[in-house]
Each structure stands twice: as C-alpha cells, then as structure tokens.
C-alpha cells in the first residue's frame, strides 16, 4: 500500500467514525430540546407502541448513560437511557420507537435479527482473539498461517457488523411507521424524527465500512507475506 493510499485509509478509519459519532450527538442534542405535540415521554411512546402491537409481555426499563438505549431479546426488555425515558422530545420518541422496532422484529421472528443474535457470542470471542493470531502471524512470518486464522476470526466480527445494518434500518422503518400511524408525532415532526434515526444509522454504516476496510487490508498483507515465502 502506497503512502497516499495509506493516508486515505487512515483518514477513513479515523475520521469517518468520529464524524458519525459527532453527527448523531449533535442531531440528538438538537431534537432532544424539541417537545412533541403529543407530549409523550420515551417510556410512554414505547409502551404505546408495544401495546398497540400486542407485546404486553415486553417491559421497559430505564438505563444509565447517554444513548445507552437498546432492546434485549433474551429478557424481552426495552432499555431507554434516562433522558429518553423521561423527556417528551422528538429525539426521545424516535429512539424509543426504534428500540421497540427491535421488539417487533423479535416477535415476528425477523430473520436478520435472529441471525445477528446468533452471531453475538461468536463475534465477541473472535474480536478478542483475532488480533492475537494476526500479530503473531505478522511478526513471526514462519507462522504466517496464524495470521490467516486471525483473519477468519475477524471476518466473523465483520459479518456481525454487516448483518447489523439491515436490522437497524428495518427497525427505524418500523419505528417511523408506528409513530406516524399511532399519532405519536405529527407530519411536521416526522422529518425531524427521521433525521435522528438517520444520524444514528450512520454510526452503524461507518462501523461496518471501517471493519470491511480493515479486513481487506489484512487480507492484502497476508497475501503479500505468503507470496514472498
């Protein structure tokens, strides 16, 4: 890889994720100050959508930390960060609806969600072990096959990142359908809610792009090492 290409690569893997994080935080901050006309808190939005879809068994919990919102398919719980749980903002409604979108996916047996969930233990193990094999193979060229093992392990993590994309996009689509059809937000607020969800989606796109680029770079390094043997 030439110096120019390497600098471009560094710019992508460093700048793009930072930009995505800054974008989602600034967008969230802006729309967390705008109250919805319906005046529902994130917890109320989540409960309203869950009940409308017959998911009375799914519970809602408050979680600590900024944007720590998530859905746990094992415990059937929607976790909303304190700000989204209590506040009556467009951002809070959008995020709450998005997490409930995952609960609806789970209830309907959405294939991509189930596949991603099955990859979680594999991705956790592989992401921790991959670099041990990769670095060992790079520094000890006589054992270059160790690098190949590391690349295979990393590929499992990359697959997880890629599968995450349709899961997140689909949850956002479901979220918008729900908040609009149930009258949780009005027409003038719909565009703002989409901006919040689109900004959040960019973080997943950035993470997937970086993961794929890093995997490709390591494959090229491995190819060069083995071709020199």
Describe the 3D structure:
The model has no long low-confidence stretch (mean pLDDT 91). It is elongated and about 65 Å long. Helix 4 crosses helix 6, helix 4 (90-108) crosses helix 7 (187-228) and helix 5 packs antiparallel against helix 6 (145-181). The chain is mainly α and 229 residues long. The two termini are 19 Å apart. It has seven helices and three strands; from the N terminus they run ααβββααααα. It has one domain. It has a three-stranded mixed sheet with strand order 1-3-2.
Summarize, please:
InterPro entries: Zn_peptidase_2. This protein is mainly alpha-helical and 229 residues long.
Helix-strand sequence: HHEEEHHHHH
Number of domains: 1
Oligomer: single chain
Q: How many strands appear in the DSSP assignment?
A: 3
Sketch the major β-sheet.
Answer: 3 strands, mixed
Uncertain parts: none
Give the averaged pLDDT, no decimals: 91
InterPro entries: Zn_peptidase_2
Keywords: Membrane, Transmembrane, Transmembrane helix
Transmembrane segments: 6-24, 119-140, 146-167, 201-222
Protein name: Zinc metallopeptidase
């Amino acid at each position: 890889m030439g110096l120019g290409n390497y600098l471009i690569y560094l710019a992508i893997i460093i700048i793009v994720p930072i930009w995505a994080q800054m974008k989602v935080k600034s967008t969230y901050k802006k729309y967390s100050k705008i109250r919805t006309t319906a005046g529902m808190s994130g917890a109320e939005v989540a409960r309203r959508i869950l009940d409308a879809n017959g998911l009375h068994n799914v519970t809602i919990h408050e979680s600590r930390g900024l944007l720590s919102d998530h859905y746990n398919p094992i415990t059937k719980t929607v976790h909303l960060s304190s700000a989204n749980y209590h506040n009556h903002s467009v951002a809070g409604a959008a995020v709450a609806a998005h997490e409930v979108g995952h609960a609806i996916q789970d209830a309907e047996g959405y294939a991509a969600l189930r596949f991603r969930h099955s990859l979680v233990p594999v991705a956790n193990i592989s992401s921790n072990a991959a670099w041990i094999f990769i670095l060992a193979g790079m520094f000890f060229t006589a054992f270059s096959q160790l690098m190949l093992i590391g690349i295979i392990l990393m590929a499992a993590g990359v697959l997880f990142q890629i599968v995450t994309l349709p899961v997140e996009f689909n949850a956002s689509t479901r979220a918008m359908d729900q908040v609009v059809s149930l009258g949780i937000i009005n027409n003038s607020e719909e565009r703002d809610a989409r901006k919040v969800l689109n900004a959040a989606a960019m973080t997943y796109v950035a993470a997937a792009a970086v993961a794929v680029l890093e995997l490709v770079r390591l494959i090229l390094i491995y190819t060069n090492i083995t071709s020199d043997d």
